[in-house]
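Quick one, tokens below. Sequence please?
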């Protein structure tokens, strides 16, 4: 993160702290990947939660993310700065909706989500370019998560042994 942007955010500010993925977005290379990795401990903590709790948290993370990301982007005076990674955290949760959380599914889901987030196939790329503010920051990653989730469900239907791969 360039110094002028860094000076506009504070890890003591809870909005910035969350939007920057608990600080993972401040890593100077591949912040989106590290932001996605920041979701893994939360996913592991929620692995045995009732499905309705997982859904509720996913919805909460997605809705509150619009505010967190939008406010932090406004404070930084940069739309969707790479260090804003709460959208990756929420996208990872969408990836694992109704997917059993095991070591192999975490690995596969992480890779598939990152591929969709980086490559931005249609309609993700269109949304990324046309929507602004907190909604635009969040929506492309939520859609990447939905597409990754669909891939996970197709894969688990075709190869149910992926759940216990190693």
């Amino acid at each position: 993160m360039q110094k002028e942007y860094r000076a506009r955010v504070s890890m003591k500010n809870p909005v910035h702290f969350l939007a920057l993925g608990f600080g993972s977005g401040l890593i100077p290379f591949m912040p989106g990947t590290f932001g996605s990795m920041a979701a893994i401990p939360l996913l592991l903590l929620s692995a045995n939660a009732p499905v309705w709790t997982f859904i509720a948290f996913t919805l909460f993370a997605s809705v509150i993310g619009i505010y967190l990301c939008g406010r932090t982007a406004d404070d930084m005076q940069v739309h969707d700065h790479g260090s804003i990674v709460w959208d990756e955290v929420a996208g990872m949760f969408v990836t694992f909706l109704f997917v059993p959380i095991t070591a192999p599914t975490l690995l596969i889901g992480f890779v598939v989500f990152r591929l969709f987030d980086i490559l931005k196939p249609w309609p993700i790329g269109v949304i990324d370019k046309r929507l602004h503010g907190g909604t635009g920051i969040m929506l492309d990653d939520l859609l990447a998560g939905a597409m990754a989730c669909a891939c996970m469900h197709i894969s688990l239907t075709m190869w149910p042994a992926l759940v216990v791969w190693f």
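Residues 3-164 form one domain. The CA atoms of residues 56 and 148 lie 19 Å apart.
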